[in-house]
Amino acid sequence: MAHQTQNFSIHRGEIKVVQVDVTESDGTTPKNLTSIDDVIWKLTTSPSSTVALAEKRTTLSPGDDDITLSDGAGTNDRATFTLVEIDTIDLLHEGLYWHEMRLDDGTTENSLVMSGALTIDPSVTA
């Protein structure tokens, strides 16, 4: 799979929909994700951290915390999830965090398809 960098900002406690269009290693051919065991997104304090502050997966029961698959440029090549208030409201400091999305195809090597910085901005209402 091709890797893409996706940096974005949200306010603490904000609701945000995130879409990731996944391609094959050529960077242009859409990757059908229905054969993947699990699509996993994690928020951590740094690229080297193994502790997830928030996590989204396709293998959870249907609901707001799941990653759903839909059609982008191809069939089932778009992974979409929603960051909800609970994902960021308890983060004690605003600033820079790290996030990434991996595809688990059942092998020991999970494919990193997206990563980047997520900036949590202060909120006066959260």
Describe this structure as you would to a colleague:
This protein is mainly β and 126 residues long. It has one domain (4-121): Immunoglobulins (Immunoglobulin-like, Sandwich). Helices cover 3% and strands 42% of the residues. It has 1 helix and 9 strands, in the order βββββββαββ. The strands form 2 sheets. Strands 1, 2, 4, 5, 8 and 9 form a 6-stranded mixed β-sheet that branches. The protein has a 3-stranded antiparallel β-sheet with strand order 3-7-6. Strand 8 and strand 9 form a beta hairpin. The longest helix has 4 residues, at 85-88. It is globular. The model has no long low-confidence stretch (mean pLDDT 88).
Tag the structure with descriptive keywords:
mainly beta; 126 residues; 3% helix; 6-stranded mixed beta sheet; 3-stranded antiparallel beta sheet; 42% strand; globular
Topology readout:
Elements lengths: L3 E2 L2 E4 L4 E6 L16 E7 L9 E4 L10 E3 L7 E6 L1 H4 L6 E10 L6 E11 L5
Parallel strand pairs: 1-9, 2-9
Antiparallel strand pairs: 3-7, 4-5, 4-8, 6-7, 8-9
CATH topology: Immunoglobulin-like
How many separate helices? 1
CATH H-level name... which superfamily? Answer: Immunoglobulins
Task: Indicate the structural class.
Answer: mainly beta
Q: How confident overall, as mean pLDDT? A: 88
- The CATH architecture assignment turns out to be Sandwich
CA-to-CA gap between the ends? 37 Å
What is the CATH class name?
Mainly Beta
Low-confidence stretches: none
Q: Describe the main β-sheet briefly.
A: 6 strands, mixed
Number of domains: 1
Reading the helices and strands in chain order gives: EEEEEEEHEE
Strand content: 35-45%
Report Rg: 14 Å
Please give the number of β-strands.
9
Helical content band: under 10%
Shape: globular
